[in-house]
Amino acid sequence: MTTTSKKTARKAPAKATTKPVPKPAASRPVSKTVATTPSRVSASAPTKPAAAAKITEAGKPFHETWTFLIIICITLPILFRSFVYAPFHIPSGSMKPTLLIGDFLFVSKHSYGYSRYSFPLGIKLYDGRKGGALPKRGDILVFRPPLEVRTDFIKRLIGLPGDRVQVKHGELYINGVIAPRKRIEDFRDEDEDGTAHSIPRYIETLPNGVTHEVLDDVSEGEADNTEEFTVPDGKYFVMGDNRDHSMDSRFREVRFIPAENLVGRAEVIFISTKGSLWKLWQWPYTLRTERIFQPLPEGK
Predict the structure, then answer these.
(1) Does residue 98 surpass a pLDDT of 90?
(2) Considering the domain boundaries, does residue 103 fall inside one?
(3) Who's near 287: CB < 8 A, 6+ residues apart?
């Protein structure tokens, strides 16, 4: 055991004496390794460029990210509906023959300026209206009645602030003067079950010269004789063109419309259908092609 260890000890110095000779050669490989290491790592380790790519993606400007695109897709339609035009659907016949059930129209939101009812959910950002022009007699208005502010109504503007409005025997009087009307060809209408019938139709002329068609199919109906209404300041008197089938300012449920409650002015029918708009396969039978992009006249 001891001998063996001694032999090993003797051999070790012999090896140690031979290693110092090639020292210069050993220094060369070291220097070569240091110089070649960067090139070898960049060529053989693809994980580092991938990490760099992730950093570049995360570091994009905000306007180039998906988050920005999603925000734009959500906010642009809201802004357009709030400040420019909003689409509306006609669900009832109170404005026949001017507007029919199934009409889809664009309402100008900027014509009369902006109020709380110009914005989604009726958010109140300020009192009254800001900007825009005053409504004109004969305009077709979209508004929220004071007693039903969550529902959009559409009627024609008849009385301006200070006007006296009355209906006698089915005829309209404004400031004591009758609005002349002329009988024309009857309006052909259909009930929900498809039964056709005729309704007396007239052309009515308002004091400012605006003319429009009205229907009057019930003689001495519920709202054919009213008291004389004086329109307060800052409010308006509206009526439907289908005079015997319209809930409007003649009734206390609606009465006078504050300027703040105006939503906008109806400007154009962009499409109209007798059935569902979404049942495209029925369009050949239900689409009213003659009403597509039909403009609606303004007041004066």
Answers:
(1) yes
(2) yes
(3) 271, 272, 273, 274
Task: Please state the separation of Cα 78 from the chain's center in Å.
Answer: 5
In a domain, 161, yes or no: yes
Is residue 155 left, alpha or beta, with left meaning phi > 0 and alpha meaning psi from -120 to 50?
beta
User: Alpha carbon of 124 to those of 41, 84, 128, 264: distances in Å?
Assistant: 63, 18, 10, 17
Q: Are 156 and 95 in contact (CB under 8 A)?
A: yes
Residues with catalytic function = 94, 155
Instruction: Please indicate whether residue 140 or residue 81 has the higher confidence score (pLDDT).
Output: 140
What is the value of pTM for the model shown?
Answer: 0.74
- Look at the block and give the residue holding tokens 């959910």: 121
Here the tokens at position 282 are 């029925």
Q: Report how many domains make up the chain.
A: 1
* Separation of alpha carbons 122 and 145, rounded Å: 13
pLDDT at 25: 46
